[in-house]
Amino acid sequence: MPTEAAATPFLPGLGLSRALYEEAVRPILAAAHPQLPYSAARIGSGSEVLGFDTARSADHDWGPQLQLFLHPEAAATHGGTIHRLLADKLPGTVHGWPTRYRPSGDPRDPVGHLDPTADPLSHRVQTAAPAPWFHDRLRGVDALTAELSVRDWLAIPQQALAEVTGGAVFHDGLGVLGPVRERLAWYPDQVWRYLLGCQWRKLSQEEAFVGRTAEVGDDLGSAVVAARQVRELMRLALLQSRRYAPYSKWLGSAFTRDVPDAKLLSTPLRETLAATTYADRSAHLCDAYEELARRQNALALTPTPVDPTRRPYRSRPFPVIRADRFADALLATVTDPHLTALPPVGSVDQWADSTDFLTGPGLPTTGLA
């Protein structure tokens, strides 16, 4: 980024995008296409959409930008014209930040850098028809014209759901963005119960491994398994809080911001990661298990509460929560036959972990779940 932009005080990207729309794009469109219906928003990928951007974000693919949604016919007829019109009419900067982007020049790293001297056509006001844009972002799911099926919900990574329901809508002249964002705001109750049960099941798969690895002298392995459990507990806390969990870069930030009384959980989770002995590691991890178990009971999703206290793993001296008890209790409340017919493995991001997979639009997953 050029020196003059680097010296500009940081502003959150959503604010810059709103200023780009209100101060430039809206008046330009009003003058050139006064009768053209459109919707304008800043949604999709980007730390600013999730509300986590900082001054560091300005080094690539960040800045004043937005999506301009048009009816399909208008997108085909006017999309290119509008892009060129904005290239001609947009100001060079918004609140001191360039509106143009210079490509990195490295095909292996196709990012853009703010540069006031770049080609005016390099601005990032993207014109698109809503249906293909959402179809691409939601991994092949049609969320605009059809109710999502169980398999649709399970096929969309939470990162993608956070991206299309986050950010901001500046104008919804098409009347499309509000309804689809509301429809995707959170899982249906039956899907939520299923995912909660699957998350407890996932925790149950490795909770005893923290002790078993330590017992054979593999302290490093014990620490690795404990760290994996910490991550899954954070994801469980967000799921309980009805908030989509982003991928790893922003998981901790979302946990701290979006989980009520996050400090009650973050203390034992941090102490688990810092522990240098199995005894300490296990004790702190069980503190976190018990806190999440109490929170699960407080949601009153099962007919009776499940005992939230630690216990030995079968006949072995490894303290655990026996997370399978919570999984079984929750899955027993799932009555949708489409869900009861599925194994308790959950949604794609409960069994897939590739960042490219979780964050890459255009990767269809409807056949995988």
In short:
Helices cover 51% and strands 9% of the residues.
Poorly predicted runs of 5 or more residues: none
What Rg do the Cα atoms give?
24 Å
Order of helices and strands: HHEHEHEEEEEHHHEHHHHHHHEEHHHH
Major beta sheet, specifics? 4 strands, mixed
The largest beta-sheet arranges its strands as 7-2-1-8
Structural class: alpha+beta
Principal-axis shape equals: elongated
Please give a structural write-up.
This protein has 369 residues and is of the alpha+beta class. The protein folds into 2 domains: 172 residues, no CATH class; 147 residues, Four Helix Bundle (Hemerythrin (Met), subunit A), CATH 1.20.120. Helices cover 51% and strands 9% of the residues. The strands form 4 sheets. Strands 7-2-1-8 form a 4-stranded mixed sheet. The chain has a two-stranded antiparallel sheet with strand order 3-4. Strands 5-6 form a two-stranded antiparallel ribbon. Helix 9 runs antiparallel to helix 11, helix 11 packs across helix 12 and helix 11 packs parallel to helix 14. The longest helix is centred in the middle third of the chain and has 22 residues.
